[in-house]
Amino acid sequence: MDVVICKTYDELSRRAAAVVAGLVNHKPNAVLGFATGSSPVGLYKDLIRRHREEGLDFSKVTTFNLDEYVGLPGDHPQSYRFFMNDNLFDHINVPKQNTHVPSGTSANHRAFCEWYEKRIRECGGIDLQVLGIGSDGHIAFNEPGSSLGSRTRMVTLTEQTLDDNARFFQKKADVPRHAISMGVGTVLEARRCVMVVNGKGKAPALAAAAEGPVTTMITASALQLHPDTVVFCDEDAAGQLKMGDYYRWIQKQADKTE
Ligand code: GLP
C-alpha cells in the first residue's frame, strides 16, 4: 500500500482525481468504482472541473458504487444514489444507464446482490475503485468482523457508524440500520484502489489500516493484501502513522523525477 501524505485536502483530492483522470484518458471505457461520504467530494469536484475545462470524457465509462442504505429509494436526499447524482453524475457526461448504485429497495436483497456481482463481472471487473474509510476502519459498509472474503450482501451497521452518519439525518433514529454493501472480497478484486482520507478523526483508522495487522476488525487493513493500492491523505489523517517521514521522503523523490 502506497501512502501519499498531502499538505491539504485540496491537494489530496487533486492528486487522487489525477489518477482517475489518467485512467479514463488511457482507457475511455474504464469501469470505475465510486464511494460516498464527505471524503471523496473534493475528488469528484476536481473530476467535474476536468470534464468542464479539459474535456475529460466519461461517455464510455461504467461505474459501480460501493453501497446503499436499505429502505431509501434513489430519490431520497440521504440515499447514496442521490448523493452520487448530486455530487458527480449530474455534472459529467456519464450515461446514467452506465451508473450502478446498489438498490436499497429491491424485493429480494439476496437476489439483487448476486445480480450486482454478476453485473460487475459482465462489465469486465472494476479497473479502479475509489474508497474512503470509516472511523472504525471500515471500507464500503464492511463493519468490524466482516469476512475479508465477503461479497456484496446486506449488512447491519454498527452503533459507531450510525453515530458518524447521524449528521446527515434529522436524528440518529432516522439512519437506516442496514445497508447493501460490496464485500471486502469484491473490493479486493478491483485492479487498482485509491483511498482518500482526511482529518484528525481518521488518524487512528488510517494508522491501523496501513500499518496494523490485517484483521477483520479493521476491514481497510485488507488493502495491505492488494497489489496496487494508493492512499492519499492529509497531514491530520497522517498524524498517527509510524512511517510518516518515510512516506514523505519517498513522495519527495517521486515528485522530483516527475
Ligand atoms: C460511509 C460509507 C463509506 C465511507 C465512510 C466515511 O460509512 N459507507 O464508504 O468511506 O462513510 O465517510 P466520510 O468520508 O463522510 O467520513
The number of distinct helices, counting runs of at least 4 residues, comes to: 8
Structural class: alpha/beta
The tally of strands reads 10
List unreliable stretches of 5+ residues. Answer: none
Strand content: 15-25%
Give helix and strand order, one letter per element, not per position: EHEHEEHEHEEHEHEHEH
**Percent of residues in helical segments?**
25-40%
Determine the mean pLDDT: 97
Shape: globular
Account of the protein in words:
- This protein is α/β, with parallel strands linked by helices.
- The chain contains eight helices and ten strands.
- The strands form two sheets. The protein has a seven-stranded parallel beta sheet. The protein has a three-stranded antiparallel beta sheet with strand order 4-8-7.
- Helix 1 (9-26) packs across helix 2 (41-54).
- The longest helix is centred in the N-terminal third of the chain and has 18 residues, at 9-26.
- The radius of gyration is 17 Å and the shape is globular.
- The chain starts with a strand and ends with a helix.
- The structure holds 2-amino-2-deoxy-6-O-phosphono-alpha-D-glucopyranose.
- 2-amino-2-deoxy-6-O-phosphono-alpha-D-glucopyranose binds at residues 35-39, 66-67, 132-134, 140-141, 161.
Keywords:
258 residues, alpha/beta, seven-stranded parallel beta sheet, three-stranded antiparallel beta sheet, 10 strands, globular, binds 2-amino-2-deoxy-6-O-phosphono-alpha-D-glucopyranose
Brief digest:
By secondary structure, the protein is α/β, with parallel strands linked by helices.
